[in-house]
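Lab notebook, bench 4. Continuing the backlog of folding jobs that were queued last week. Each job is logged with the same field layout so the records can be merged later without manual cleanup. Today's entry covers Alkyl transferase, a 375-residue chain. Filled in by technician R.K.

JOB TYPE: sequence-to-structure
TARGET: Alkyl transferase
LENGTH: 375
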Amino acid sequence: MMSSWLVTEKRSWPEWLALQVLKVGPIPKHLALIMDGNRRYAKLHEQETFHGHIAGFKTLTYVLAWCRDLGITEVTSYALSIENFKRSKEEVEGLLSLASNKFEEVLNEGENLAKHGVCIRIIGNLDLLPTYLRAQTAEVVLMTRNNTKCFLNLALAYTSRDEITAAVRECAIAISEGRLQETDITPRLLEQCLYTAQSCHPDLVIRTSGETRLSDFLLWQSQFSCLFFTKVLWPELSIWHVLGAVFHYQRHHHTVVAARKQAKLLYDRYELEADQACSPDDPECGCDGTKARKIRVERFIADLVERREKTYHALSTQLKEIKKQQQESCEQEQKSEASGRVRVIGECGERVVSVSVADPSLLKRVQQRMLLEAN
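JOB STATUS: finished
OUTPUT FIELD FOLLOWS
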């Protein structure tokens, strides 16, 4: 075990052989995971639900290691759905606490993550998260942003409906402010407004626990992905399940590639229609309406990216302030505790008594009285 997030383990010869055989065929670049079955796993083993989520995180670390061995460079994990907030207060608080603890571990493992080139991104509606957790996610994103070997996208407070709604809202506001025209809106532009704008679409989506639905996860992005459903509960997932999913992807790879080629042609046609609908007398670009559209879109996307960057930096600054206040509060408590401790040495031996005394003179009188009683 290298760290809580980066796991290394020796492969048995059957595992090594299977890895080498699979690498002969196409390997998915991007794997998406719906980690279902943590609660059922805990119930099956007569444990609290929280222990199921802890076991589920451990499985995720192993999956990341298997992906590195396979050559899968990007993983998106459905860590917390917006729908999960409807669960019991105890379970929701446990999930948020677990997430906060794991992010704190990430912040302490920056050098190790940089060494292995791990970039962590967060997708989801961060406004729904507690202030401290939201600030932690921002700090993690900023700390690992320059790592480029492999990418881990954690979906927190996420659903596709919320993601697509947010993207449409951004475009609608831009149109109302005159930064975009209605004809500028294309599927490709909407994709650039999604939380996953920096990622390629997932090639393979795995869901555990026997459920055969996507549960509002990457609905836009997975329209041309290979889907693999398995009955095993997430904490019980093994490398053989993942290898089986990759083999399933290889068998259907040609249909995925063909569908994506068709989608690209369709997207190109939408953009051509958008160009044809542009006003030919744009004052900024003369009679070139196509150029005007591209400039508007580029400015809109650049502004969107800049605003998101500013949000991350503001949250990171907030995290530093919170930690500073916590440190000061801890030091103050230690001083208060030290000022309230009285060490008395007498014939009966040494004893330490804690008292809550704010006045130093009164503390001295208490100490003298206790000394007399001890002797």
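OBSERVATION: The two ends are 57 Å apart (CA to CA).
SIGNED: R.K.
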